[in-house]
Amino acid sequence: MDEYEAQQRLAAFADGELGPAEQVPVLEYLAAHPQAMGRLIHQQRLRQAVDRAMHDRAGRVPLPLRRKVEQMMMTAVPEVEAAGGSTPPVTAADRGHSPIAYLGRWAPAAVAAVLLIFTLAAVTTTWGPGTSGDAALIPAGQLAMFTKRHVDCALQLAPLSDAVKFPERLSEIPAAIAQHTGAQSYPVLGLSAMGYEFEAIGPCSVPGMPSVHMIYRARPETGRRDAMSLWMIKDRGQIDIPPDIPYTVTSIGAPHPVIIWRHSGMLYYLVGDSTPRLQEAIATLALNL
Questions:
Q1: Residue 46 — pLDDT band, cuts 50, 70, 90?
Q2: Which among 111, 105, 66 has a CA at the least distance from the CA of 88?
């Protein structure tokens, strides 16, 4: 399959939309392109983390895929090893053990599929269900300020304050945030895995002081024009919510949803144009730990 078709099929595979027969060429493609498998695993992890955040249940590998992998494990032909020797055939005794015990015996597609199964099964988070429209957690006036500030800064109507100089390199920003706010943020604050690039950072008084405001913008190749605003301020108990549980504080269908959560001494406010993308961003930050 060509690159475009491969990307389309990988996306459908990640969403669980392919039947067992349609999955075979995708598994073969993954075996031949390890970097594509890495991207797929990342997408699956994001979907599972978001699913747990919204529904408080572990993500599950689609049953048809699991059955297909089991079938491949029983019928795959041992491949010739790079050293020139033949891999021993699978015996009846082998079949009673975990596939991991003899993973190296199988054809590349089977290896790729089983690695995918076990990697996804190992993903865990501590996230629980959020609530929708819990506006009582934030005063209406402050909520309006978050929305207005996000729109103004995203449209560059109001540039971020430069009263505090932050580094330009994203990798250096967490340390600068800790120095400015007195609390440690996530160690990695990039959202490039979901198609957003860091654009700007500055101090902001909307959630209180001292706090910071970061802006992310969708990369041109994504075909989107949306942006996200992330505020961080030291968690002093301003909002009484359990840690690591995201709460949507805008009504369903709001043009600029706002989600808040607490994590390791920091209080976060995330504003954007799409609730699913905000949820994916939260999952991405959590996976960066």
A1: low
A2: 105
